[in-house]
């Protein structure tokens, strides 16, 4: 989870073997990273996430700077008919206007929360590419202008993880990411349920892993809620261990 | 000088100075399925909204400018975008994918795209953390 790929290096390999390189830029958004400039042929976005930014609209994008690909995609979209509706197009246009300030604020909050999570004794791992100990940190510094606001963390047990999902109130237990509201997900049964268990575990997606999409609330309020949820869970689980 | 991304999120440079849409600051929503033709073989610029719609086209230009691409396509969801992308390929084509993709992509590749006879290895391309 949260692997970082060196886009420029991958592009060198792709070019050498005459392959198309397709990069999903959803997590970074164009505000922090531009894969076409790093050698990608096609960029994919779930526009539902940071481009929309408000957890209210579904959208997707394909972007290219290659004429022959663009011509094929133009033919395909008009023929197959899954183009975005006018109203939803307008909602995404409206969302994009604030992309910059949303990305900056979410990232600022994510860094504060990552630091707080690292201090929790019930947490065994915090995975955020903005932490210098993340294996992709140097690649991120080279290819992106930021680290984003997606955090993954591993609890000491599955019970601890499930208890957090049960107890959060302001932070919503919901799928999706990239909106102004902070969401928490359980990748094992939500976003990655269709990945075979073996691959899931190889990627570090275990039953004690949670994923946080950090929004633009006040960071102290987010940390206050996490503090409360963590302390309550510790009390409950410790109490059960004693009885 | 090339404009910075915060500015490109708000202003589409190529359309500045045009007096369309009564000068509306917020791009209008053209909620229409079809468009009247001024005569046989003539078009007012759009024919049918599945082919193109002004609001969608404006959004596509903005997204292309943010990614420094020459063209962008707006679809009804991220998975609709990836599904359309799969239509670029032909039976027998190969694809290498990161194992750490969103689960919905893996579901699409393994249950839907495989019918076009992809040989579909899923390789880990990044180091384990």
If you had to describe this structure to a student in words, what would you say it looks like?
The complex is a heterodimer of chains A (243) and B (129). With 243 residues, chain A is α/β, with parallel strands linked by helices. Chain A folds into two domains: 90 residues, Aspartate Aminotransferase, domain 2; 144 residues, Aspartate Aminotransferase, domain 1, CATH 3.90.1150. Helix content of chain A is 44%, strand content 14%. Chain A contains nine helices and eight strands. In chain A, the strands form two sheets. In chain A, strands 4-5-8-7-6 form a five-stranded mixed β-sheet, covered by helices on one side. Chain A has a three-stranded mixed β-sheet with strand order 1-2-3. In chain A, α7 packs across α9. Chain B has 129 residues and is of the alpha+beta class. Chain B has two domains: 62 residues, no CATH class; 46 residues, no CATH class. Helices cover 27% and strands 7% of the residues of chain B. Chain B contains four helices and three strands. Chain B has a two-stranded parallel ribbon with strand order 2-3. β3 of chain A pairs antiparallel with β1 of chain B, so a sheet runs across the interface.
């Amino acid at each position: 989870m949260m692997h970082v790929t060196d886009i420029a290096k991958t592009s060198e390999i792709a070019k050498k073997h005459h392959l198309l390189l397709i990069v999903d830029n959803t997590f970074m958004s164009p505000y922090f990273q531009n894969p076409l400039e790093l050698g990608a042929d096609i960029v994919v976005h779930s526009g539902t996430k940071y481009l929309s930014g408000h957890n209210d609209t579904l959208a997707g994008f394909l972007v290219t700077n290659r004429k022959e690909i663009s011509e094929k995609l133009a033919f395909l979209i008009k023929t197959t008919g899954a183009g975005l509706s006018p109203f939803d197009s307008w909602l995404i246009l409206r969302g994009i206007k604030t992309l910059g300030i949303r990305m900056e604020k979410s990232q600022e909050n994510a860094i504060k929360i990552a630091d707080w999570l690292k201090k929790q004794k019930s947490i065994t791992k915090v995975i955020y590419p903005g932490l210098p100990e993340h294996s992709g940190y140097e690649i991120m510094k080279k290819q992106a202008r930021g680290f984003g606001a997606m955090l993954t963390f591993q609890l000491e047990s599955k019970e601890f993880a499930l208890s957090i999902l049960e107890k959060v109130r302001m932070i919503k237990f919901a799928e999706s990411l990239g909106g102004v509201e902070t969401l928490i997900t359980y990748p094992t049964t939500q976003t990655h349920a269709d990945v075979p268990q073996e691959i899931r575990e190889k990627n570090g997606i275990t039953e004690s892993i949670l994923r946080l999409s950090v929004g633009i609330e006040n960071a102290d309020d987010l940390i206050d809620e996490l503090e409360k949820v963590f302390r309550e869970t510790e009390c409950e689980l410790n109490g059960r261990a004693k009885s | 000088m090339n404009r910075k991304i915060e500015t490109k999120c708000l202003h589409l440079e190529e359309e500045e100075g045009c007096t369309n849409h009564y000068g509306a600051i917020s791009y209008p929503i053209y909620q229409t399925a079809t468009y009247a033709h001024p005569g046989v073989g003539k078009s007012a610029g759009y024919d049918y909204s599945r082919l193109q719609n002004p609001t969608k086209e404006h959004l596509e230009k903005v997204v292309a400018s943010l990614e420094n691409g020459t063209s962008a396509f707006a679809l009804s969801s991220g998975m609709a975008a990836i599904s359309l992308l799969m239509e670029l390929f032909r039976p027998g084509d190969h694809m290498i994918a990161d194992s750490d993709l969103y689960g919905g992509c893996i579901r699409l590749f393994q249950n839907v795209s495989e019918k076009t006879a992809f040989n579909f290895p899923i390789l880990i391309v990044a180091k384990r953390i």
